[in-house]
Amino acid sequence: MLIRVPKKSEIKEHELTPQSVYHSRRDILKKLGIMTATLPFAAQSQANIFDIFSSGEDNAEPATVFQRSPLITNSSPYGSGLSLTPESKVLTYNNFYEFGTGKGDPVENSQSFRVDPWKLEVTGLVNNPITLSYDDLLKQFPLEERLYRMRCVEAWSMNVPWIGFSLAALLKAADPLGSAKYVAFETLHDPKQMPGQASQFVGGGIDYPYVEGLRLDEAMNPLTLLSVGLYGQTLAPQNGAPVRLVVPWKYGFKSIKSIVKIHLLESQPATTWNLLARHEYGFYANVNPQVDHPRWSQGSERFIGEGSIFSSRRQPTLMFNGYEDEVASLYKGMDLRSSY
Ligand SMILES: Nc1nc2c(c(=O)[nH]1)N[C@H]1C(S)=C(S)[C@@H](COP(=O)(O)O)O[C@H]1N2
Ligand SMILES: [Mo]
């Protein structure tokens, strides 16, 4: 992260993007209903990538926008009292390198992503391997809405109303063997749909598919969520549709998107960012204001809330991202500095 992102700071978007792409991006935002009179957040954060004030005819083909569906959920006590990050920002400021490394790339490049049919397999050291279809993902387990803090390792954060179910519910149904100690996750590999998987340059030099992992006890913690929606509707592709992990006490890169495989195993699995830069991104990746990234402080973060980036407030980073009561016992006796 922040490794292979091209510098755009002095360049206007329309100078580095073909006109047709530029226009379709504007069109997507319009169709999402988030082209407002105010300059969008991403425009200010990323060298005017949505430069809506530029003149010129908008003569591109109408862009397709992914259709999300409403979801009925139970409410849960998680996160009551947290202020929400506006939906428009959750939908347009993303990390999903399969669709490009810029924060505005995922929304632009993922709108025709196919999520149905989908197949999520739970395999490995289990008594009862499970395959879930797209419908199963939405219907097999009761859905809850949970407002969680999300902290990216790049030192920004959001509060997001996720919809989903505990990963524990799915793992219990699969019935892990006594020998299972870790859970590995894998994102869809489909270079035809994911331009970042077709090009090293677009995909930031990652070896795809993106893989992640948790210790089994972390995976079974009630906070660990398989999310299928946010803000009352199914997930948008840029947020990891149709199903993604949310591990709110860990840096965002652990929360792997568009999952097709969950595999239980005996030894610690490889994880994408650790493979890419192992001294910078560990397996545990617990949010910890005391343990800095080698290239920046983790003591505080930029909270993405209402208003422009210029008014976004810096706030202190909380131990385990504010979930210390729920998860600290998982790491008793561990050195969190060496097990970063
Ligand atoms: N497959 C995949 N999953 C991923 C990523 C990615 O590039 N590919 N980025 C991660 C990072 S760094 C973050 S911060 C979160 C961002 O989730 P959001 O865009 O829904 O806020 O997704 C994580 N999951
Ligand atoms: Mo991240």
From TrEMBL:
Membrane spanning stretches: none
Annotated InterPro entries: MsrP, OxRdtase_Mopterin-bd_dom, OxRdtase_Mopterin-bd_sf
GO biological process, one term: protein repair
Cofactor(s) annotated in UniProt: Mo-molybdopterin
Keywords carried by this UniProt record: Metal-binding, Molybdenum, Oxidoreductase, Signal
Cofactor binding note of this UniProt entry: Binds 1 Mo-molybdopterin (Mo-MPT) cofactor per subunit.
Oxidoreductase molybdopterin-binding domain ranges (all copies): 113-273
Positions annotated to bind Mo-molybdopterin: 94, 97-98, 152, 187, 239, 244, 255-257
Enzyme nomenclature, EC number: 1.8.5.-
Enzyme class: oxidoreductase
Quaternary structure, from the entry: Heterodimer of a catalytic subunit (MsrP) and a heme-binding subunit (MsrQ).
Family classification: Belongs to the MsrP family.
Protein role: Part of the MsrPQ system that repairs oxidized periplasmic proteins containing methionine sulfoxide residues (Met-O), using respiratory chain electrons. Thus protects these proteins from oxidative-stress damage caused by reactive species of oxygen and chlorine generated by the host defense mechanisms. MsrPQ is essential for the maintenance of envelope integrity under bleach stress, rescuing a wide series of structurally unrelated periplasmic proteins from methionine oxidation.
Protein name, entry field: Protein-methionine-sulfoxide reductase catalytic subunit MsrP
